[in-house]
TrEMBL record:
InterPro entries on file: ArgJ-like_dom_sf, Peptidase_S58_DmpA
Coiled coil: none
Gene3D superfamilies (alphabetical): L-amino peptidase D-ALA esterase/amidase
Name of protein: D-AMINO PEPTIDASE, DmpA family
Listed SUPFAM superfamilies: DmpA/ArgJ-like
Keywords: Aminopeptidase, Hydrolase, Protease
GO molecular function terms noted in the UniProt entry: aminopeptidase activity
Domain of life: Bacteria
Gene name of the encoded protein: dmpA
């Protein structure tokens, strides 16, 4: 269930794509599998970079670790080779291994020579700790949930307390999945930059929406007098996609700008917060087999990247706002609950 989009703050001046989501980038699709039963409040979200086999047809990619308090898998090889070879998976901290194994099994099913005549596959799984709402020790997520999220991938991206975002918290209220996109023009070409976030970060008093500090009111409404004394902890995963022709080095620069959008919402990348951004381009694919031709594509000049940098920052900030706007109240383990932001501050419906 999603809350109303009435009054949602609009970030920046760049136009959004038709869906205002990461799926505005051609070929990109998103799927969720949600587990919502009593103390189990968790799930899996999968981002497919294209409709084909990402092992055979890899896409350029790079990541930035703003703060490394996290347990993701696959980042070392992405850093070394600059490509994705599985879909991007998001889940809770204790489910990384199960989801990675599911990615490996899916890749082997499609390519039986993986790990034999062919090299092994690099699963890519990101995580946030949803243990406040979810009984994370149950390790309820298994490979079937990854398979279900992958099979569900489509262009309509549901946001809020869904998939991997089901048990996540942000700024003392309900967090989760958010997405947004921005369109830019460059050398007579029009490109899309889309972002999807798994938002599980922030302290109540620091929340800033479209440049307006609303954190003090939020902290007061939540009646958490000791909140200011609590360190920022949690995590956020930010995935940025574009159809602009960028190589892995340029994509790393783009991923870094996700941190600008994150900072605008009130985050300082605190000690206990794992803040990671991944960027990939769908402009070309890199063949797995050496006997296939490498793509011949002209990359954008470095001096033309500023509009993409702005789009990355704006779409990430907007995606975080969307995660807060769409997330409904969830009650989880041991009576723990996170209220929806718009339930705590209903006046935000009209104030944007």
């Amino acid at each position: 269930m999603q809350t109303s989009t009435q009054g949602v703050p609009r970030i920046g001046t760049l136009p959004a794509g038709s869906r205002d989501s990461i799926a505005d980038v051609p070929g990109v699709t998103v799927g969720h599998c949600t587990l919502a039963q009593d103390a189990v409040q968790t799930g899996v979200t999968v981002i497919r970079p294209h409709g084909g086999d990402p092992y055979r047809d890899k896409v350029p990619a790079a990541a930035t670790v703003l703060n490394g308090f996290g347990k993701s898998i696959g980042l070392v090889q992405v850093d070394e080779l600059g490509v994705l070879e599985t879909p991007v998976a998001l889940t809770n901290t204790f489910s990384v291994g199960a989801v990675a194994q599911a990615q490996i099994r899916a890749a082997i099913a499609a390519n039986p020579e993986i790990g034999r005549a062919w090299p092994t596959v690099n699963p890519l799984v990101f995580e946030c700790n949803d243990g406040y709402l979810n009984d994370i020790q149950r390790m309820a997520v298994d490979g079937s949930h990854y398979d279900a999220a992958l099979a569900a991938a489509g262009q309509e991206v549901v946001q809020g307390a869904i998939g991997a975002g089901r048990g996540m918290s942000s700024f003392g209220v309900k967090g989760g999945i958010g997405t947004a996109s921005r369109m830019v023009s460059c050398m007579a070409q029009r490109y899309c930059v889309g972002a999807l976030v798994l938002a599980n970060f922030g302290t109540p008093e620091s929340l800033t929406l479209a440049g307006k500090l609303v954190g003090p009111q939020l902290a007061q409404r939540l009646a958490q007098p000791d909140a200011a004394a609590q360190p920022e902890k949690g995590s956020i995963i930010m995935v940025v996609a574009t159809d602009a022709p960028l190589d892995a080095r340029q994509l790393r620069r783009l991923s870094l700008r996700a941190g600008a959008g994150l900072a605008r919402t009130g985050s300082v990348f605190g000690h206990g917060s794992g803040d990671i951004a991944l960027a990939f381009s769908t402009a070309c694919t890199v063949p797995h087999q050496a006997d296939r031709a490498m793509p011949a594509i002209a990359m954008l000049h470095e001096t033309l990247l500023d509009p993409l940098f702005r789009a990355a920052a704006d779409s990430v900030e907007q995606a975080i706002v969307h995660a807060l706007w769409h997330a409904a109240t969830v009650q989880g383990r041991d009576g723990h609950a996170r209220r929806a932001l718009l339930e705590v501050l209903p006046e935000l419906h009209q104030s944007a």
